[in-house]
Amino acid sequence: MSEERDIIMIGGGLGGLTTGALLAKEGYRVTVLEKNPVIGGGLQCFRHRGVLFETGMHVLGGFEPGHNLYRICTYLGILDKLDIRPTDADCMDAVTFGTETYRLPRGKEAFTDYLVRLFPEQADGIRRYMDDLWALSEEVDLFYLRPDEGSMLRPHSEDFLLPADEFIAKYITDARLAELLAYMNPMYGGVAGHTPAFVHALINVLYINGSAMFVDGSQQMADALADVIRASDGSIYAGDPVTAIHVEDHQVKQVVTRSGKTYTGDWYISDLHPCTLLELLPEKAFLKSYRDRLREIPNSYSAFSLYIKFKEEARRPFVNHPCYWQEEHGHVWQLCDYDEATFPRGFMYLTPPSHQQGPWAERMTVNCPMPFSAVSQWADSATGHRPSDYVAWKERSLQQVLDKLERACPGIRADIDFCFASTPLTIRDYYGTKEGALYGYNRDCKNMALSQLPVATKVRNLLLTGQNINLHGICGVPLTAIETAEALVGRGVIVRKINDAYNERLKNL
Predict the structure, then answer these.
(1) Nearest alpha carbon to residue 473 among 206, 294, 245
(2) Tens digits of per-residue pLDDT, 243-272?
(3) How many CA atoms lie within 13 A of 479 on its CB side?
(4) How far apart are CA 120 and CA 304, in angstroms?
(5) With helix as H, strand as E and coil as C, how does 449-485 read?
(6) How many helices and strands, by DSSP H and E, does the chain display?
(7) What are the two backbone dihedrals, phi and then psi, of residue 427, each rounded to the nearest 5 degrees?
(8) pLDDT (tens digit per residue) in 122-167
């Protein structure tokens, strides 16, 4: 366990805040430096014309009693501060291909039975697929908050690194069902032939066990984590990005922000995309081979998103679950492929809940997978200074999404008060992530060693955290935060305390 107690956290996203909160609980004094005026990364919310919108964390998993995020938040003392609404038990997700809509229920048994009723000739394959899906998730110790023994790169079952689409095909011969089982791939940047089966398994098990949505936005979780840090004499500074990290003799000596302030600590932890981190470090900090490796790892795709406010008199129904829509079969693994003439071929949309939610929706978010190549011609532009042809393209794309959304939700155009969009460039500049990658680096089963980064670096007092290290998302990032924090306090220390806190909560219920 490190006796050096001052932590400088570079980046205040979910990874930085969770890592900081875990270390604050261990007695470390944490200083978080966030480039944006608002902390949270993908948890950030913003207001447009007085209406609250989320930037990233729209759907949650792991908050069912006993599950990983439920336990982590119990330990941190923030569980009861979060306002979370479970999705409908009988329909956690609605999935549409053309004119066919499937209403998928929550829970392994109910999910399995539903599919067996619809595809009785595939019953045996469905049951074996579901059992093996759960078995794959069991191979990742940290997912179940067991002490982690290097779960990702140690020897695993032969299916662990099988491409997810091939894993499904092992059990399922019906093409429609195979597509349906892959409907969540936009939640993890799925790519046929490359995304490993264990990533597919973790995401599906997480959400099938019980999905939920934040009530009035995900900013509440960022704020709750920040309170944990401040309660242990920590500090959070937002709106003043780090511009340089000074390294001498393989150690960070200080960081400098845009305003000219300097911060020093015993340990420095980066919650940034590794390629963004490289831009802040002197070239000699890492070997050229390591720098080249970080720059060569492919990034996940990005998104084109719509933010919609409905008219007060619209009476657009509130739907208590996400909806996935594709205009036809055959493209579930190609939704990120971009052709302006056919964009979008599919998207996810939802109506986020508010306090005292009634039968009518106030707003809607629509997320369409989009690669960075769609906007690469404007890559040198900055927010607020985009060229006119980009603005025109963005408006055309917005209208194309609305045209498809009208097919999914007839009459919706007439119900809209106002609507605006974000693009991969928005995500790149807002989050500071290379190519606006929604999920950071791609996890590629063809070369897992390339995309799995250790939390430690060759700079002795510099550690990594965040979605580019091991796992992404509302669940994966906190699990990586545990690994980063345990690099200082000892392997298994925090996991044990998390489980002890949960067991104590059970006694008091």
Answers:
(1) 206
(2) 999 999 999 999 999 999 999 999 999 999
(3) 28
(4) 37
(5) HHHCCCCECCCCCEEECCCCCCCCHHHHHHHHHHHHH
(6) 16, 20
(7) -65, -45
(8) 999 999 999 999 999 999 999 999 987 655 556 789 999 999 999 9
